[in-house]
Amino acid sequence: MAKCLVVGGNGFLGSWLVDALVDQGHEVSVFDRFSSGQSYISTGVRAIVGDFMNHAHVRAALSGQEYLFHFLSATTPATAEDDPTIDIRTNIASSVELLEFAVEAGISRVFFASTGGAIYGEQAPGSISELALPAPISPYAIGKLAIEGYLRYFQKKHGLNSVAFRISNPYGPRQKSNNKQGVIPIFLNNLAAGRSVVQYGDGSMVRDFIYVEDAAKLLANVVNYEPRHPVYNIGSGEGHTIAELIGVISQVTEVELDVQVVPQPSTFVDRVVLDTSRYRAEFGEQQFVPLSEGIRRTWLETAGKRA
Amino acid sequence: MAKCLVVGGNGFLGSWLVDALVDQGHEVSVFDRFSSGQSYISTGVRAIVGDFMNHAHVRAALSGQEYLFHFLSATTPATAEDDPTIDIRTNIASSVELLEFAVEAGISRVFFASTGGAIYGEQAPGSISELALPAPISPYAIGKLAIEGYLRYFQKKHGLNSVAFRISNPYGPRQKSNNKQGVIPIFLNNLAAGRSVVQYGDGSMVRDFIYVEDAAKLLANVVNYEPRHPVYNIGSGEGHTIAELIGVISQVTEVELDVQVVPQPSTFVDRVVLDTSRYRAEFGEQQFVPLSEGIRRTWLETAGKRA
To answer: Predicted ipTM?
Structure first.
């Protein structure tokens, strides 16, 4: 049992991670603004209401903790794209400050939510391993790669251990579609509201979708080991085109989607499927919730909210 | 003949670049604080005194220019190491702002002074090509890699062409030793002042030293072409140990150095020698000033200043 602080633990991925950590018997604290009520379902979690930009709040939260999960992003891919300098000043700079406070607090290991979906940029066809040369195009992913660099620096300079998770495209309940992040909740919300959905490009864009509860289990599992690598791809390892996705959504919801096609933005890459063999070799295999079942569960929540 | 603006053109590398561009017949403007008098020797250069942090200054300087050389660094490896967040707020954020202004001004191509000496981090033995996976450890290099990422973003998003030069370890006259950057000027200055020199580690650390005038010629040469790659290593392609360097300095200066050995800092990598075949295949071969001759020229300046 470890003392875990999840910064951003009330967010989409963070809240599922909290539940997975509690399931494994860890003592979990969550640092978050809690601006929209509690997202995780576990009991016995210590909720620390605070502002990531407030140094005193962050320092107080870190005190006495063993593991730090940095799962807070002050920006989304969409907001970072609109103004890269906001991302630099808030996400990158604040993450470095967080790491400084983690050193002060004697944290044993930092786990960082990086991005597998965007960090690699355009790559040759096939699944992408951690040895591929990252070529991020979006400011969001450029910032994540920079933070991975600072993790390396803090390890060398201050002996702060860390692991970065390059997570593909997690989806599932609790994901807010108003963040403009996540094609699945955006599609489902538009569907529930009787609106058309916007497809970027011809539908051939491929993504590695992973049901968020599966992703959270993979992440929480690493706490029980001494990780051998600084970076792990976290994904299903399976690719689906946007056209396939639309087909699955139609089937699950029994509604024909009204698809509006617009050109693919220049900063969207064609294909991202992660090679997850590094993780599997070290931490074992896991069964994944199939895309149709994951969408069914997400749709239950989306449709339920509107009922 | 092109209209070139060199931001940071009164600095060490920048001023040699200015001279090389003027030699090639280009129309050169320099944007710099000029805090310590003029460094370049060329005539006919338009000097624009301004502050990189002042948006109006930067925008005015960019107006009517064709090529932008971003050769200004608000930090050095040493100052960035002391406080990474300063580097993030000044270098990274300000570079993104510069690129935004470059788009506004209709700049044809940006040339960026990245670092080949520090961007790769620890690598397998042998010379390092642009295809190696960068693993920068120092905040200075993490910042440079992030800026390379933003160049990619501006290319995709706004069609702003750019080239990043990963320059190894340039040395030569005009390099200020008080910046704590550059082992050669630091050694020569200490020698001239009758002080001992500090060697990090056992002397086996290997670096790719390039005489600054050679480096500047390689850079200026690219202006005449349509570059095929976004990134080029710029170096001599030859490695020298610190022990060898001390031997060459002794020989050239005819002074026995008083060497003080201290442990190698954790963020110093053991070996950096660049594979420069990408540059040579595209832009041709160049003769290099040998290390002993380069040190002789540098020593002439150092000793001359004190005489």
So the answer is: 0.90
